[in-house]
Amino acid sequence: MEEILYKVHNNLYVNLTNKCPCACTFCLRQSMDKIGESSSLWLDHEPSFEEVKEAFTKFDMSAYNEVVFCGFGEPTEALDVLLQTAKYVKDTFHMPVRINTNGLGNLVNGKDIAPLFKGLIDTVSISLNTSNADDYHKLVQSKFGEQSFDAMLSFAKACTKYIPNVVLTTVETTITKEDEQVCQKICDDIGATYRIRPWED
User: Fold this and answer.
1) d(CA 23, CA 134)
2) Residue 58, Cα to own-chain centre: how many angstroms?
3) I want to staple 100 with a disulfide (CB 3.0 to 4.6 A). Which of 11, 62, 64, 70 is the partner?
4) pLDDT 10s digit of each residue in the chain, 201 long?
5) What is the distance in angstroms between the CA of the first residue and the CA of the last residue of the chain?
6) In sequence order, what are the residues at sequence separation of 6 or more whose Cβ sits closer than 8 angstroms to the Cβ of residue 183?
7) How far is C-alpha 183 from the chain's CA centre?
8) Are the CB atoms for 167 and 195 separated by under 8 Å?
């Protein structure tokens, strides 16, 4: 049974794909099959929009604060279904929608995808991970190579034009306080919020 939707805290998460252009050294899916109240986030196929829509009928949406696109993969790898689902959530439930992403969706899709999120996405949370391209490449191991860090920052900057809340994150205890200060400046320059998040969040 495909686990498309699953609960984490008071939010409902949407698991659209297991594809990802990165092989992050810290990725949770290297060591576990599930997050939050899920049983397994490994998919045997990518769900269609109709399957995602059907999954929503099994949940009482009044119990959740936010719908979050984040599973065992990069959500923008399933861009069309993501956009259809976000519109469905907005039109049907009138709820806040967030994407948790590695920020490489423009490289994945070969185009600027930020404008497509206007009116559909309230928050985008992008994994900044570290303060410079060299460390980023070692940590993230993107298949797109050395262009990835700058592409992620460009995507974040573009998102500030279309999405009300743009957040860049690093994980607490994984970089130095000095690096965190550099990350704060990067976010200030982009016009994004900087968040240092707990390890498993």
Assistant:
1) 15
2) 23
3) 70
4) 578 999 999 999 999 999 999 988 776 666 555 566 666 687 899 999 999 999 999 999 999 999 999 988 999 999 999 999 999 999 999 999 999 999 999 999 999 999 999 999 999 999 999 999 999 999 999 999 999 999 999 999 999 999 999 999 998 888 999 999 999 999 999 999 999 988 765
5) 25
6) 128, 130, 131, 168, 170, 175, 194
7) 18
8) yes
The alpha carbon dihedral of 167, 9, 74, 106 has a sign of negative
Q: Scan for tokens 């439930």, then name that residue.
A: 93
To the nearest 10 degrees (0 to 180), the angle between helices 148-159 and 177-190 is 50
Is 153:190 a contact under the CB 8 Å cutoff? Answer: yes
Cα–Cα distance for residue pair 172/179, rounded to 1 Å: 11
Tokens representing 34 are 């599930």
Residue 172: which of 136, 192, 199, 194 has the closest Cα?
199
The rounded distance, in Å, linking the Cα atoms of 144 and 171 is 23
3-state SS, the chain, equals: CCCCEEEECCEEEECCCCCCCCCCCCCHHHCCCCCCECCCCCCCCCCCHHHHHHHHCCCCHHHCCEEEECECECHHHHHHHHHHHHHHHHHHHCCCEEEEECCCHHHHHCCCCHHHHCCCCCEEEEECCCCCHHHHHHHHCCCCHHHHHHHHHHHHHHHCCCCCEEEEEEECCCCCHHHHHHHHHHHHHHCCEEEEECCCC
* Residue 158 φ then ψ, to 5°: -60, -40
